[in-house]
Each structure stands twice: as structure tokens, then as C-alpha cells.
Amino acid sequence: MKHLNIWALLLLLCLGCGNKNKDGQPKQIAIVVSTLNNPWFVFLAESAAEKAKALGYTSKIFDSQNNTALETDHFENAIAAGYDAILFNPTDAEGSVVNATKATDADIPVFCMDREINSRTAATSQILSDSYAACVQLGKLFVGDLDRQGNYAEILGIVSDNNTWNRSKGFHSVVDNFPDLKMVAQQSAEFDRNKAMEVMESILQAHPDIKGVFCGNDAMAMGAYQATVAAGKEDQVKIYGFDGAEDAVNAVKDGKINATAMQFPKLIAEKAATLADAYFKGERNFRKKLPIAVDVVTPKNIDQYIAYGKKN
């Protein structure tokens, strides 16, 4: 019986080893996000930190402020400080590859969250919302709401982010099949609310008759809405966003914008932390890309949703 107790104790000690670094301290996870200027990314980062803590790890959130050079500093500091894993929301699909590669070369696993990098080897795994498929659905809704005709505009996100183009391509794969729907303006507002308001103001001045605007994220959709209100055109222009942020969910409920696409940042963040935990425990066979489904949210189904997810 004594031998059995000793083996049980050794087993428990071994199981605990996966949560400790070489100094016997809890393993550290760096959470590097593109920007904390957007509530959606704040929620993503905080969800990752909460899950890491629940799994027995310490973590620290780093804000890259949409600056690849600052992101590079964060990676170099995380590597030098001996972080054991990096949960990563990249600033640039191409420019961020070198940072992920540095970490991987230093035997630090990198798990991308939401945003993609253009490499199949630099990251251990990439957990990505299925933006294209969601925007196909948004495109169908847009076509129906505009009765298949009229001028419209598109406000793009950061042009170096693959999400920008995946969303745009999904939308256009539907809308471009209707020749009486004409895109009269397409401009980037870099996923920023204030920039989107300025862009929308300019679009409305040049094209006062537009019937709709497709925005690459909710922050820009809300900025576009502010511009339509200022121009007295909030009842004329139908607005579509993407993310499922709190203000956009409320705006759909209040009839201010027509729809958004609900990503699930908590699910993405928790999955990334869980994969890091699996890595610490010896797992090495990870899917290079793990798609997460996105729901389209409209006034018809808004009661099923809250900010950043579904009710219950």
C-alpha cells in the first residue's frame, strides 16, 4: 500500500510539472495583441488571460498599437524574459511572420488568435474566424435589403490584414453578381471608428444618394453611423458591420445598423490558451489553421445574442 501511495504521489507531481518552468515557477504566457484601442481586442486579450490563469499559468498582455515595430519589441522582450508561449493577435499578415518565426526558432510556441499570418510554419497553430463565409451571408442580406439595386460604399479595414480581404471577398462574391448594385466608393478606415466617421462623411458628400455601406468591422460601422446621423441620412443608408461588439449589438437591437457578424473572441482566446496548455503537456500535432464559425446577427435574431457571443 505504501508503494502505491508513493507512485500516486509521483504521478501527481509529474502532472504538476507541466505547469511549472525550469525554475519551478508557473509557466508564463505572453498575450500580444494588435491594439487595445478596440474593445473587441481588449475582450480577446482579457479572455485569454483569464483562461491562462484558470489553467494554472501566469500571463501578461502586450499592446502593439497596430505597429509592427512595437510588436517586434514585444516579441524580443518575451523571448529574452523566457516566456513559455505566446498567444498572438498579429498586426500585419506579412510583417508579423518574422516575429512569430523568431519565437518558434527559440522553441516558444505561437498560437495566432483571430488574425492570420502568411506562413504555415511560423505559428504552431492559427485560430481564425471564418470571415469569408460570414460575409457571404452578409452579402446575401445586403442584396435583399437594398432590393438588388442602388449605389453603395465599402469601408475597408487595415489593408495589410488578411481579415480585411477575406471579408471583402466574401461580400463581393455575392454582391458583384447584381449589376444594378454599384459600388461608388471603397476606402480604408483601418478598423478605426473615428477614421470611419471621416471617411463616411467624405463619401456622403461625394455620393449623397448611397443606399448602403458595408464595413469591415463594428467600430467602423459605428463611425459610419455617426456620419449618417450628422448628415441627416441615418434612415437612408443601411449599415453592416462585423465583430459582434457591444455597441454594434445594441445598435442592431435599436435599429441603428442593419446587421453585424458575430465572432466569438472568448472561444478563440480560450482555445488558444488550451492549445498552449496541451503544448506544455507534450502535444505537438496541432492543426495549422483552426476555423471558428461566425454568426450573422440581424433584428430578427438579435434576442439570441449579447456582446461578443450568444446568450447562455
UniProtKB/TrEMBL annotation:
Subcellular location(s) of the protein: Cell envelope
Please list the residue ranges annotated as the Periplasmic binding protein domain: 29-283
| Presence of the UniProt keyword Signal in the record | yes
Q: Pfam families, from UniProt? A: Peripla_BP_4 (PF13407)
Principal localization reads other
Any one Gene Ontology MF annotation carried by this entry is: carbohydrate binding
Q: Which InterPro entries does this one have? A: Peripla_BP_I, SBP_2_dom
Q: What are the entry keywords?
A: Signal
Q: Where is the signal peptide?
A: none
Q: Which GO terms describe its cellular component?
A: cell envelope
SUPFAM superfamilies given in the database record: Periplasmic binding protein-like I (SSF53822)
The family this protein is said to belong to = Belongs to the bacterial solute-binding protein 2 family.
Q: What is this protein called?
A: Ribose transport system substrate-binding protein
- The organism named in the record is Olivibacter domesticus
